[in-house]
Amino acid sequence: MRISTSPAGHAHRLYLAQLSDYLHKSEKIQAAWDAYSNEHSDPETRQPFDDVYGRRPSQPAEATLAAFGRVYYHADELVLLAEQQLLQLPACDRTRHYAWQLVVLNVSTQRLYEARDAWLDQRHKLPQDAVPGTAAYEEPLAEFHANAWLCLHQWTRHGRSLIEINQLAQKEPHASPAPAKAPPVPEPAAKPSAPRR
Q: What percentage of the chain's residues is helix, strand, coil (to nearest 5)?
């Protein structure tokens, strides 16, 4: 991808502010869902107490995706800008950890873009009577939201690293380049408390 924004420029600061807003909103959405889930499901089996719970499967995922809206279109650029900034920082355990987080964010972003493209393609192929509110429409949409939820969970967990890298880069703007090598990205072990159907 071609970067059209300079690190620490006006657009970059705006993107980071939008990311900060997303992080705040997504953490509130997750906390609200966790509270609802704890109240409406068995603490040991995690099975819902009633059918109302089962009708809310994609609400938190949909809300998180909506919160990510302004970040979505430049998420990959934010990661690339952070990679550039990271190269200017001295190599240490902290920068290596950031490098790993950037790999996770990059993979999650590409998967999110792929999930959205797949949903748009699938929606285009739906029969004419598959409209919002029908199972034929809502089921693939819920699947898209579930896939997006997993990607966005990684942004909620690791997105703050982009803000921290920017802050460090502002403190050391003339540091000599020292690439931080990241270990391979493992499959995410800790999944979010996903909505149940």
A: 65, 0, 35
Alpha-carbon distance 95 to 100, whole Å? 9
Q: Residues of the chain with pLDDT > 70: what percent? A: 78
Round to whole Å and give the CA distance between 74 and 162: 13
The better pLDDT of the pair 28, 44 is held by 28
Q: Token pair of 124, please?
A: 């285009």
Strand residues in the chain grouped as ranges (E): none
Q: Which residues pair with 41 in a beta bridge?
A: 48
Round to whole Å and give the CA distance between 57 and 101. Answer: 28
The H or E element containing residue 96 is helix 93-125
pTM assigned to the model: 0.77
Phi then psi for 41, rounded to 5 degrees? -145, 160
**Of 73, 80, 76, 69, nearest to 21 (Cα)?**
69
**What is the rounded average pLDDT of the residues 161-176?**
81
